[in-house]
Design a protein that fits this description.
Elements (H helix, E strand, L loop, with lengths): L2 H25 L1 E6 L5 H16 L3 E6 L4 H13 L4 E4 L8 H9 L4 E4 L11 E5 L1 H15 L9 E6 L6 H19 L3 E2 L7 H4 L6 H16 L7 E4 L2 H14 L6 E2 L6 H8 L5 E4 L2 H16 L21 E4 L2 E4 L3 H6 L11
Parallel strand pairs: 1-2, 1-3, 3-4, 4-5, 5-11, 6-7, 6-8, 8-9
Antiparallel strand pairs: 10-12
Helix pairs in contact: 2-11, 3-4, 5-6, 8-9
Bound molecules: beta-D-glucopyranose.
The site of beta-D-glucopyranose has 12 residues, from loops.
């Protein structure tokens, strides 16, 4: 065949492929299941996913499950009944959706675990998240720097508030931070007056601010009421940090501690600017949403799906191929560049 003819034909094939992808995408429905509207980030995640999927030509069914696993299960079953071609799920409890995942598998519907891994099932096709272990190491390293633990002997008083035991991420955040801090604990530079260090002791069911607050109040009244300073409070995320900050405001008058967080929620970013929280790990939800929309497109067009980790995320049944985005720290010095210049927030939102 003449070269020109080949070029013409391949052009036609390419054009018709493009058209069929567009037509294909247009007819497809994507079910997006988010855990709750209570925390800022899931509202953002949901909104970003909806906007980007719609823009890419998909029909979207977006649901939030009020932090109730039974509601989430039913919502996902309904999405399957409504003809979803792909499901994107951020689980309230990683272990509680088996029935819906089985139903998805029966209907050959690919499932993407969004931010939180779906556990104990082989019906999970892909996982997209931020590197959860790294979130913890970023927090730990921030503490090492802030207290200059390489050069100072301390001892500095540390307390720990971790996340929800039902969320597979929470253990990674905790472990990432503890792996950085443990050598300093072993060297006696960091001490934990409450003695509460094991994950089960420091966890916060459902990541609830109130729960983190009341545990912090108990710790402050039991171990710090005599004027002992708390130098650093490792908090796995912003909703728990907020509870600790509220507890400190009413129950503590010593030197204000270094406090970590995660998500750069608006309230916490305001607290960072006001000096009431030292840092927060910034996980740009726009980046995660774009990655997942790309994955959806690759799955539906039968292309190879982008992953960058095929070893870490064992859900108890299979190792789920994952795409890990990169988290970075934000603090009072760099928040403008990260959060405002990038268009994540407007200056007004942080007033
Ligand atoms: C997310 C965090 C969030 C936490 C509470 C975790 O699974 O990765 O970004 O702070 O849930 O919603």
């Amino acid at each position: 065949m003449k070269k020109a003819m080949v070029a013409l034909l391949s052009g036609v094939v390419a054009a018709s492929m493009l058209m069929s992808t567009a037509v294909f995408a247009e007819g497809e429905k994507v079910g997006v299941s988010m855990p709750t509207k209570d925390l800022q980030r899931w509202n953002q995640d949901g909104a970003n996913m909806e906007a980007e999927l719609t823009e890419a030509g998909y029909e979207v069914e977006l649901q939030f499950a009020s932090n109730d696993p039974a509601t989430q299960l039913n919502q996902i079953k309904t999405m399957i009944g409504n003809g979803a071609s792909v499901l994107v799920i951020s689980a309230i409890e990683g272990d509680s959706l088996g029935e819906a995942l089985d139903l998805a598998a029966e209907n050959e519907i690919p499932v993407i675990a969004y931010d939180r891994l779906l556990m104990s099932s082989d019906a999970v096709s892909y996982y997209a998240t931020f590197d959860n272990y790294k979130v913890g190491t970023v927090q730990g390293e921030y503490i090492v720097e802030a207290l200059d633990l390489e050069n100072q002997d301390g001892p500095f008083n540390l307390e720990i508030t971790a996340g929800d035991p039902g969320d597979n991420n929470a253990g990674y955040f905790y472990q990432g931070a503890m792996d950085v801090l443990q050598p300093y604990i072993d060297a006696g530079k960091l001490v934990i007056p409450s003695g509460q260090t094991a994950f089960e002791e420091v966890a916060t069911p459902q990541w609830k601010t109130d729960t983190a607050q009341s545990r912090a109040e108990n710790i402050l009244s039991s171990f710090y009421a005599d004027g002992t300073n708390v130098d650093v409070w490792l908090c796995s995320n912003d909703s728990t940090a907020l509870g600790v900050e509220t507890a400190l405001a009413a129950n503590y008058s010593g030197t204000y501690p270094v406090i970590t967080g995660q998500d750069c929620d608006i309230e916490n970013t305001k607290n960072m600017i006001a000096g009431k929280q030292s840092m927060s790990v910034f996980k740009d939800t726009r980046t995660l949403a774009s990655q997942v929309v790309k994955m959806v497109g690759q799955i539906l067009s039968g292309e190879e799906v982008d992953v960058n980790d095929t070893e870490t995320y064992d859900n108890g049944v299979i190792v789920v191929p994952s795409y890990l985005c990169d988290p970075v720290f934000a603090d009072a010095n760099n928040y403008k560049e990260l959060l405002i210049d990038s268009g994540y927030y407007t200056e007004d939102q942080l007033q």
